[in-house]
Specification:
It is a single chain. The protein is of the alpha/beta class. The chain is 43% helix and 13% strand. The chain contains eight helices and five strands; from the N terminus they run αβαααβαβαββαα. Strands 1-2-3 form a three-stranded parallel β-sheet. It has a two-stranded antiparallel sheet with strand order 4-5. It is globular.
Length: 201
Amino acid sequence: HQLHELTDAELIPLRQEMQMVFQDPFSSLNPRMTVQEILEEPLIIHSIGTRASRREAVLDILDRVQMESDSLTRYPHAFSGGQRQRIGIARALILRPKLVVCDEAVSALDVSVQAQIINLLEDLQKELGLTYLFVAHDLSVVRHICDRILVMHRGRVVEAGPVEDVFTSPREDYTRLLLSAIPSPDPDVPLEPLDRQALGL
């Protein structure tokens, strides 16, 4: 089945298995709901548990994303970007999905916070046996967190394979162009991006 061909009723059970972490933690959380309500809502929609067991699940997932239980009564505006993204991750994981789509999940965050969130995602992947589909333009993040990579250009796949293979032996000019634009961790190494026009791109 193609997802776009499914009815709303057919999508509901699938949504339990596939969740999403969005790019912007400032707009992806309902400002009128407390953290408790935000995290409990997916459980209520899918008729999971009693009120008491839902509260337990909320406290458990909040602990897993390293947030304090006193966050429950607060609203999204009271939190930093990194904290909001932790809440967004908790909301995605409370249903125990098999697949989590991370759509530029760290690109709106400060660099130091990005590292914390990436480490958290890796820890949660090991703890909960998750599969991530990580959509990103920051290739250093992709190299750090992903096992396989799929490179897209103008809406089509131009290269795919294990991350280290693609990074060390890219086959396509577009992939080489992207990789040449990644800054080195060593500030003395100059950035020498390839020329897009020379490559005919």
